Amino acid sequence: MTPENRAALTGKHFMNGDFASAEGAIAAGCGFFAGYPITPATEIAERMARRLPEVGGVYIQMEDELGSMAAVIGASYAGVKSMTATSGPGFSLMQENIGLAAMTETPCVIVDIMRGGPSTGQPTMAGQQDVMQAKWGSHGDYEIIALAPSSVQEMFDLTIEAFNLSEIYRVPVMVLADEIVGHMSERLVIPAPEAINVVNRKRPQASPEEYFPFKPDENLVPPMACFGEGYRFYATGLTHDERGRPRTSSAEAQQKLVQRLCDKIRQNTEKIVKIKETMLEDAEVVVIAYGISSRSALSAVRKARERGIKAGLLRLVTLWPFPDNHISEVATRVRAIVVPEMNCGQLVREVERAAKETPVTFLPKLGGEPHRPMEILKAIRRVHS
Amino acid sequence: MPLRIWRKPLDADKIKIPQAEIHIIKDRCKGCGFCIEFCPREVLETSEELNVRGVHPPKVKDENKCTLCHFCAAVCPDFAIFSIEKDCGGGC
Amino acid sequence: MNEELLHPLEGFLREWMMPHIWCEGCGNGIILNCFAKALSELNLDPNKVVVVSGIGCIGRISGYTNTDSYHTTHGRAIAFAIGAKLAKPELKVVVISGDGDLFAIGGNHFIHAARRNIDIPVICANNFNYGMTGGQYAPTTPLDAWTTTTPYGNIEHPFNLVHLAAASGAVYVARWTTLHVRRLTESIKKALQKEGFSFIEVISPCPELYGRYNQMRTSLDMMSWFKEASEVQHHFDPAKAEITRSKIVLGEFVDIEKPSYGRLLREKIAQIQGKMRGGE
Lengths: 385, 92, 280
What we know:
heterotrimer; B: 92 residues; alpha+beta; two-stranded antiparallel sheet; 4 strands; 11% helix; C: 280 residues; Rossmann fold; 8-stranded mixed beta sheet; two-stranded antiparallel ribbon; 18% strand
């Protein structure tokens, strides 16, 4: 084994979700991790601490999550793919600099292994309570991308996807896994490096004299220069124009910038969004779920089919941007929608909004344990009759 | 004890005393007065004229007294003043 | 007077951002001047210099230097700089920020960066208050001083910044004022070239706010205070160097050698990769 071929651990593994996410990051070319230990994401930090030096990367355990997120942005601007991993309480602390990352269009990945909240909550139990925070957590208007793995394989695959999306759209991308997906151990297949699709940020074509760091291309994303390449650009968290000049009193500059930060994700929603449909073609009842709940839901949908109910599963792999159009279209084809979530009602609100007239039944499960398939089956039978 | 020079230095003809050329970028000046106050040879004083900011920039009282210490340039917060050696090329 | 000639430091300023926003007599302009002068006298590749600043009046400085620059959220300049420096060690990352940004909200990042001996120079413009927001008190505001949020006089003891920096592990600690421009410039040059965490406290006038609120109505009044009260004493014990109305000790308090975080990290990675190649 040499440092050169240690990046992708090609082969079959039996690994826990947190470790799989770390392996995905390294396979994607992540060279910097700054974080703070927090249950149930600590294993990601530990794996990165062990693996990054093997591939010449840097692991630093910052004094808090505020500093961790700031360091991640610094490393990204220096040209290195960076990430951090945390859970609810740390995620709250990171919001300030997630806003900075969104405002200065910094590619970065934040893994949030969700646990029971609010506040210190239940560190060792699962939850899906950070979904809305992922989208609205920092102040101001901006858009991010959030992915929800539901298996160890997806922890690996979606972390790579997260890096790719962050590089394409110059945006913070979150991997929102619940504690169960983070801590469970399953089979993981890591392909050969050539088979892994890794995307890097677009580099500037313009010369340093002509380069405007925030002037977008047609896809609304500006090419990104990094420190030390001679561009001598200025990036600030203040509202700025395309050159980077602060325009704190210009209504026009604020409108233009914020609109573009939102549009670059909103207008590319169809390209970004990933959904997995099971038995949906002729379904009359659809369960819309993500994360660990979707695994219970799959079992419930199969059981429903055995009992003659035309049930289907729509598993959201991308939580944000929310696939409005897709949900609206599916809603016209079914009689009822069931949404199981391990919270008091977060993503279900988006489903209700997109589903319009179609009735949506919300199935909450608080306490940290996942839905049992029978609970979801009961709900399917109830709405079906 | 005061310095008493009792003969002209032997290499006096070979030494060229640098002559100063003081440049004041008047419209940058905000009138803080640091250059005037801290010049060790009192070369500068406040002028009567007003610049675009409505303040009185400095003006040179006696350029010959300047020793090119560049303190004015170093202490100016606004990059409004600097001194360079005059290009004499024969006679000054 | 020939006015077409450019200021000798013009090339170090980002021309489309000038003139700067700072008040008449504000020390920030002098700090920018000394920093530009230091860069002009060193042999650094200007394309590798990165200026990182926080929020505050001095925080605007990254906009004015003709270098790669980043203006972070309040208090996070050092944390950001750590990320940039560790990701790309050939960069010369410099943090220039204010007393509030570095020691109130940013205090935690400061002490840990000093402890870890991260290779970055940190220049602190200490004007004894939060200037940008109108002159509220800061962790450096002297006892009894008037600020807009201590309208009855400050009841908090201020930090002794050089003591804090030295105690946290900084390898170079110096204090100057904006009057001592030459020595400040020399200190900046030294800090830019020294391995490890360097800290320079620059006592700076805020004539519009702190000065005006505390019987130093003009910028010259504050500079006069610096002139009267300061004494240069190298290797003075930083623990005893509190700033008072009658005494400001200046100089280089600490100048030691200690392996930096970057050096230890590189050695560790080389060791790990060496073992891997050695056929473990």
